[in-house]
Every structure is written in C-alpha cells, then in structure tokens.
Design a protein that fits this description.
By secondary structure, this protein is mainly beta. The chain has 1 helix and 6 strands; from the N terminus they run ββββββα. It has one helix at about 90-104; strands at about 10-15, 20-30, 35-40, 60-65, 70-75, 80-85. Strands 1-2-3-6-5-4 form a 6-stranded antiparallel sheet, with helices on one face. A hairpin with a 2-residue loop joins strand 5 (about 70-75) and strand 6. The radius of gyration is 14 Å and the shape is globular.
Length: about 100
C-alpha cells in the first residue's frame, strides 16, 4: 500500500521466471507518474558473480541507478524485491521502505 505517498495500484501481472513465478505491480500518482514493484524468488549467486549482487540467502537493501530508471532492491526471507521509477532517490526510498514494511 503506497497510498500514504499518493500512489494507487493500477494493475499487476504474473510473469514467468527462471526459478519460479514473478509478480509485477504498477502504481501511479495523481500526476500520472508510475512506479513498479517486482518480486519473486531470486536466483542463487553464480560462482564468480560480484559480491554486491544479493543472493537468495542474504538480506540486502540497495540502490541502483544504471540506465534511465533508478531502483531500490532487496532480498528478504527467500524473495527478491525491486521498486523502480523515474523518481528522485529520496521519494523512491520512501516507497521502497513502505513496500519493505508491508511485505516483511
């Protein structure tokens, strides 16, 4: 529930993934700005992968700004989560924190 920050759920999809089903939820504010929450079981970290990539066995909360859409992502209790949108980092962090609290 991201309504405390002005975002309402506009839809969702169930998607296939390598290690199981994924879910994607889209939220929108009154100005039409959208943010997406994506979740599913994370893949195990392959041998030689950077240690900055979270694995299924650890809890992490990180910011990524590669490309045009920044995101926060984390792994918790066997699931991986990402929230992404063309938003300022501080607002995206507030939304990620709300999602983390609701889903933990």
């Amino acid at each position: 529930d991201l309504s405390s920050q002005g975002y309402t759920l506009v839809g969702g999809r169930l998607l296939p993934g390598e290690t199981g089903a994924r879910a994607q939820f889209m939220f929108e504010d009154a100005a039409g700005e959208r943010v997406t929450l994506y979740l599913g079981p994370p893949p195990a970290r392959p041998a030689g992968a950077p240690t900055t990539a979270p694995s299924a066995s650890e809890t992490a909360f990180r910011f990524a700004s590669e490309g045009p859409v920044p995101s926060f992502y984390w792994v918790d209790q066997g699931f991986g989560y990402a929230i992404a949108g063309k938003l300022p980092r501080d607002l995206l962090l507030k939304l990620a924190t709300l999602a983390y609290r609701d889903l933990s």
